[in-house]
């Protein structure tokens, strides 16, 4: 029997090398994250510390901990705390210190708003490294589950019915309480507890209905403004032509909540939207990806199911980037982003749109794939010009890059990193967490590009 084994001793005085620098390989992601964070300007974060009380963990260390955690699929503050004991990479980042989960959680919530400028700083570093050269970007969205169940959602219609039911049950329980003789009759039901439970539920429903009414009023004001504008334009056309305007007369918007207007009792800002797995309680997460480096250059979160409403926000985000990063000259988007207004928004921003006006076939006919379109009409409008552009061989080759850029990014985020559900709740907090996810993805991608 062989006895040629490597000796080991669990009672050794030093299990890890004496120097933290000897714990990890030179090209390890943890080292890269620490190096990038060391270059960030976090003055706004540091200035928020008062300097009173017990000493705090350095914000650069906590930032590196969060960034590396989100880049490697460790999201919860408790798991991050445990990792500072269990993982050599996390121990390297924290220099063998162990911030507790409350500290990590509080830091994350407190400085979510500071992540946007850090996101931009990392893009500037990528530019300095020669790894980012802006030009063409792909825009797409993905539905990410909220930290809430769709079974905790209430529609206006159901909330009203449930409210009446619970009020009736409370009245019935009060009558039962009057009739019960505690000295002679045993009652298995704890009536006071049942009444209290229903009153708590009624309070939640009342608050939910108030919020639904508030949102309905906001929607009505927007719809009324759009209606008044259309009617004014229609009246002006009739006045100029002396004839009655053709087409359907715009419908007057109705005030008040609609039957299917809903709210979630756990995360009121999340919405039930269609996903590939059916309807779920989600947010619509958007990202603009540079087609050469596959780095995310703009991201935002929305409650809108329809992607048509996101072009304007995306372009404003792109235009807000520092000139040093470069200029976006073309935007690629699928049919979900197509509208005449969106094409005009792109052209106004001096960005050439490549937005499909229809669902693309997986296997188009040979002539459609390689054929050239007829010459562009002289009086073609912006939509006509874009459709012609997409039919040219050059346009087809550019648009074909859309699927191979932004969709793989979402694939990495959801299936490699493993981020499929938000931990935080509320639109503001979840938007900050999406910033954190995109920032962590960029660090992971930068590390790969640099190696």
What does the model show?
- The structure is a single chain.
- By secondary structure, the protein is α/β, with parallel strands linked by helices.
- The chain folds into three domains: about 20-110, no CATH class; about 130-150 and about 270-440, Nucleotidyltransferase, domain 5 (2-Layer Sandwich), CATH 3.30.420; about 150-265, no CATH class.
- The protein is about 50% helix and about 10% strand.
- The chain has helices at about 30-40, 45, 60-70, 75-85, 90-95, 100-110, 115-130, 155-180, 190-240, 310-320, 340-350, 365-370, 380-390, 395-400, 405-415, 425-450; strands at about 135-145, 155, 260-265, 270-275, 280-290, 295-300, 330-335, 350-355.
- The strands form two sheets. Strands 1, 4, 5, 6, 7 and 8 form a six-stranded mixed β-sheet that branches.
- Strand 4 and strand 5 form a beta hairpin.
- Helix 1 runs antiparallel to helix 3 (about 60-70) and helix 3 (about 60-70) crosses helix 16.
- The longest helix is centred in the middle third of the chain and has 51 residues, at about 190-240.
């Amino acid at each position: 029997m062989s006895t040629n084994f490597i000796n080991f001793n669990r009672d050794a005085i030093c299990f890890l090398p004496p120097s933290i620098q000897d714990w990890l390989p030179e090209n390890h992601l943890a080292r890269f994250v620490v190096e990038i964070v060391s270059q960030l300007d976090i003055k706004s974060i540091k200035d928020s510390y008062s300097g009173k009380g017990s000493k705090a963990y350095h914000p650069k260390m906590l930032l590196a901990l969060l960034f590396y955690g989100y880049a490697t699929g460790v999201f919860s503050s408790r798991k991050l705390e445990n990792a500072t004991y269990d993982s050599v990479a996390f121990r390297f980042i924290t220099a063998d210190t162990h911030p507790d989960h409350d500290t990590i959680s509080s830091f994350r919530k407190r400085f979510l708003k500071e992540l946007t400028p850090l996101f931009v700083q990392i893009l500037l570093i990528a530019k300095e490294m020669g790894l980012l050269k802006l030009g063409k970007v792909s825009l797409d969205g993905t539905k990410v589950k909220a930290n809430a169940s769709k079974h905790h959602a209430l529609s206006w219609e159901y909330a009203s019915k449930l409210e009446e039911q619970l009020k009736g049950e409370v009245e019935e329980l009060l009558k039962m309480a009057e009739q019960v003789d505690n000295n002679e009759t045993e009652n298995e039901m704890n009536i006071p507890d049942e009444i209290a439970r229903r009153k708590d539920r009624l309070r939640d429903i009342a608050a939910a209905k108030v919020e639904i009414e508030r949102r309905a009023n906001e929607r009505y004001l927007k719809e009324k403004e759009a209606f008044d504008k259309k009617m004014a334009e229609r009246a002006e056309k009739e006045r100029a032509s002396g004839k009655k305007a053709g087409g359907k007369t715009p419908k007057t918007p109705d005030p008040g909540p609609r039957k299917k207007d809903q709210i979630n009792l756990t995360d009121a800002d999340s919405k039930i939207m269609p996903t590939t797995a059916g309807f779920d309680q989600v947010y619509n997460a958007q990202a603009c990806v540079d087609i050469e480096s596959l780095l995310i250059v703009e991201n935002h979160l929305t409650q809108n199911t329809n992607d048509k409403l996101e072009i304007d926000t995306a372009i404003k985000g792109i235009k807000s980037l520092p000139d040093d990063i470069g200029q976006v000259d073309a935007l690629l988007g699928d049919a979900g982003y197509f509208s005449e207004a969106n094409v005009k928004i792109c052209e106004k921003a001096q960005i050439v749109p490549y937005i499909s006006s229809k669902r693309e076939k997986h296997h188009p006919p040979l002539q459609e794939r390689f054929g050239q379109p007829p010459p562009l009409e002289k009086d073609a409008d912006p939509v006509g010009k874009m459709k012609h552009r997409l039919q040219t061989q050059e346009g087809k080759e550019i648009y074909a890059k859309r699927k191979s850029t932004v969709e793989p990014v979402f694939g990495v985020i959801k299936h490699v990193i493993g981020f499929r559900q938000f931990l935080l709740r509320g639109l503001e907090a979840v938007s900050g967490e999406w910033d954190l996810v995109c920032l962590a993805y960029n660090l992971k991608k930068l590390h790969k590009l640099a190696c």
